[in-house]
Amino acid sequence: MEVSEDGTLRLVAEKIKLNSNKRSVKIDIDSFKQSMTTAIPCLYALGYDEIVFSSRKNLEHKEVEDVMNFSKQLVGIEVSEVTEDRIKLDCLLDTEKIGIESLLRRILNIIAKKVDDIIAILKGQNQSEVQSTIEDLRRVYLMLLRRSMGGRYNSERDTLRNFIIAVNSSILLRVYHVMQKLNEVIKKDEKLRNDQEINKKLIEVFQKINDLFDEIIMSILFPSIKRISNGFTLISQIKLALSQINTDNQILLSYMDDLLTMLEEALNNSSCSLFLEEAPWIERNLSS
Fold first, then answer.
1. CA angle at 173 for the pair 233 and 161, rounded to the nearest 5°
2. How much is the pTM?
3. Which domain does 211 fall in, by range?
4. 157 inside domain
5. Of 88, 134, 202, 277, which has the fewest Cβ atoms less than 10 A away?
6. Mean pLDDT, residues 10-39
C-alpha cells in the first residue's frame, strides 16, 4: 500500500474503477508478491464491491482454495469467478445500509459475554453454552471497518468519528484476545479461585470493566461528558482494586495491566468524540 497525495490508501499494483454503483479493484498478484488472503480483509474494509486478482501465470489450486475458504470467514463476500489466471470476489454487503450503532452494540455484546464467562468461573458457575469466538468478533470488526472506512458520502465530522471507531475497534479486538488469555489463566489457578478475598476483588474488577466497555462504546455513539467522566472514574476504581489484590500469579497481573492500559487508551480516543459536537462550551474558527 502507499499513501496518495490526498491521504487515501491505495495498493501499488491496483487498477481502480469507481462509479455510482460499484467500486472495483484489480490486483496484479505477480507484482503484489503476497498471499491474496492478506489483501482481502484490507480491500473488504476499504469498501470495494468487486475484487479481482490476476496473474500472468496459472494460479495454483491451493491459492484458489485458500481464497475460497477465507471468503467464507467474511460476511457478504463470495468467489464469483475462477479461471486459470484470475479469481474474482463480489461483496454483496451494502456499506451504506450497515448500521454503525448495531455493529458497535454487537461488539459490546460479544466482549461483555466474555467478561460474564470470567465472572462465572470466579463464582464457580457454569459458563454460557453458546461461546462467541475471536472469529465471530473479527467478522463484526471487519464489517465495522467496511462501514467506517469504506463509506462514500461522509461529512468531515462523520469521517473523523469513523476514524475514532476504526481505531477503537482495533483496540477492542486486542482486548478480547487478552480476555481469552485471562479466562484460561483463571481457569487453571485453583488456588486463586479458592481465595475468597481475591475472588471478591476480581469479580468487582470485571464488573467494573463491563461498565467501562459500555462507556467506551456508547460515548462514541452518544458523546457525553458524564459518560467520559464515569469512564475515568471506573478506571481509577479498577486500578485501586487491582492494587489491593495480593496474589503471586504474575501472569494474571500482567494481563490485567495490559487490559487496563488498552481500555484507558480506548476511552481517551472515545473522549475525542466530544469535540465533534456542537456545544455552548465549544467555540470554533476564532479570529485572531
1. 70
2. 0.82
3. 98-276
4. yes
5. 277
6. 74
Whole-number pLDDT of residue 279: 80
Phi-psi region of 32 (alpha: psi -120 to 50; beta: other; left: phi over 0): alpha
Q: In what order do the strands lie in the sheet with 86-91?
A: 14-18, 23-28, 50-54, 86-91, 77-82
User: Domain ends where: 65, 93, 121?
Assistant: 93
Q: Which residues contact 211 (CB under 8 A, 6 or more apart)?
A: 230, 234
**Helices marked H in 55-155:** 61-71, 100-122, 134-149
Amino acid at 244: Q
What CATH number did the domain enclosing 21 receive?
3.30.110
Residues 86 and 104 in one domain: no
Give residue-wise pLDDT tens across range 192-222. 889 999 999 999 999 999 999 999 999 999 9
Q: Helix, strand, or coil here: 114?
A: helix
Pick left, alpha or beta for residue 124 (phi over 0 → left; psi -120 to 50 → alpha; otherwise beta). Answer: left
| Number of neighbouring beta carbons within 10 Å of residue 32 | 17
